Amino acid sequence: MIEKDKLRKCVILEKDGEFVFRSGPGEFHEDVAKRFRELEPELKDWRIRGGGRVIWSDDEIRVYGRSIDYGYMSQDVVEELVSEFAKENGVEFTNDTGIGY
Question: What is the model's pTM?
Fold first, then answer.
């Protein structure tokens, strides 16, 4: 759930050791999680396990930064979840999780 040509906040949600990556508009990372909990009711009980920012340009998806409230996302989890999405869309993936704000 990454929108092209938009800088968005992103979160990792977790339940019982399973993770999902979601991004969207919002002033806070909680806003992104709340939106997807409404759009995808099955995520209602999932917990935020970190946040950051994501930008998808014509040739790259870059994930970076952290959430002030929820901290850093796991670099390994971001790599696993976003690299496949990038491959499917024919773009490079840069995982700068934890770098920058």
Answer: 0.85
Domain total in the chain: 1
Tens-digit pLDDT profile for residues 55-77: 988 899 999 999 999 999 999 99
Which residues have a Cβ under 8 Å from the Cβ of 2 and sit 6 or more positions away? 8, 10, 23, 54, 56, 61, 82, 85
Residue 39 falls inside a structural domain: yes
| pLDDT tens column, 12-40 | 999 999 999 999 988 999 999 999 999 99
List the domain range (segments joined by +) for residue 61. 7-97
Does some domain include residue 42?
A: yes
